[in-house]
Amino acid sequence: MTKTLKQKIVRSGSWVIVGHIFSQGMRLGGNLILTRLLAPEMFGVMAIVTIIMVGLVMFSDVGLLQNIVQSKRGEEPGYLNTAWTIQIIRGFLIFFIALAFSYGLYFLGQTGYLVGEDKVYGNVELPYLLAVMSITSAISGFNSIHILVLNRKLVMGKLVTIELLSQLVGLIFMLYWAWFHREIWALVYGNILSTFTKMLLSHCTNIGKKCRFCWDKLAVHEIFHFGKWIFLSSILGFLLNQGDRLLLGGLLSASDLGIYTVAFFLANALRDVITKLVSSVFFPVLSQVVREQPSQVQQTYYKVRAKIDIVSMFAAGFLFSSGSLIISVLYDQRYLDAGWMMEILSLSLVFVGFMLSDQLFLSYGKSKLLSILIVFQVISLYVFVPLMFILFGIEQAIWAIALIPVIRVIVSFIIMKKYYFLSIYREIMFTPLFGVGVLVGEQMPKLVILFK
To answer: How many domains does one find in the chain?
Structure first.
């Protein structure tokens, strides 16, 4: 890597890490307050609303970000304005489909096809919440396309600032509404305001020329040709990343799903930071190295991989042995079961570094390989989680959720060995740090007693 590229990585990575730490801090702080103002079942119902909206977004993903980062035309005005036009059309398409979904849920509820109100899908407010939440997709469609160009150029300061300010505005409103009304609509209205704020900031800040409607046929062809595998990967990614809550929503009560959602958030907070860093910084870096210095790809890949593994392996061990203590300190008695759930789910952090291969495949334009990886994991998730729940109960189902990535890692090794490069030693060299994390986590109760 050149000195300039290293400087870009450090600067951009610092922005992403600091920004995401602040973002997760706001989420945690807001979560701690909101869990005291709102009932657990409200978080369970809202989890399903969020999953449906995320699903519609991912089911219509043509990879605009990946296209702009990877394409040689990624900074041309005609290309960018065409991408913006596609983004707006997609936003309204999601909006109308979400409205149709909400009506479908209402109709099924009225005709008695859904389970009782104690289950999430049978909640009488769910269709109305989804209908109002659908507005966010139409609003976000108008986001300036230049916020994606910032990713390409590794200019993350403005992007992180926009994200944090919009999140802060939405959180403040959520807390205000929840404090005075103690109702689930606080979560919906806060999300809408946050989305609207981000859209305004993306146009008001000086990040690029004014967006205009455009339809460049060559750009459209390139976007959809590259994006067809991103589209498939996004669908599979949704089924994978949201599948646990999608499945558990039909198996657990709204209250139990709300408790699981708290455990999932805490167990995956660090993984979200790393994933954001990988997609926002390391993917553009790998893409640039592939384009300009292909002989340095393996060296760059394992340098990045080492940094990820050092953090994720230790954190996985630490949370695995201290999750129950963390929950007991942060939350009230209603959420204590989130402790053992968090400990099991934290094992997924072990596999975060192995997922860097996803970005390598995309950097080479081989989005098909990413789809193959995800297919294996999705099939495993939807077979083993319900099976474990039916045969053994919720605890074994959560073990299945945490360990499903093992299958993806095995398939990834096979693909890496066949098409690119693979060093087993460098892949597993930092796994002993998991044990170190466990030992440190086991000392936490002593520290809590000492400070008390």
So the answer is: 1
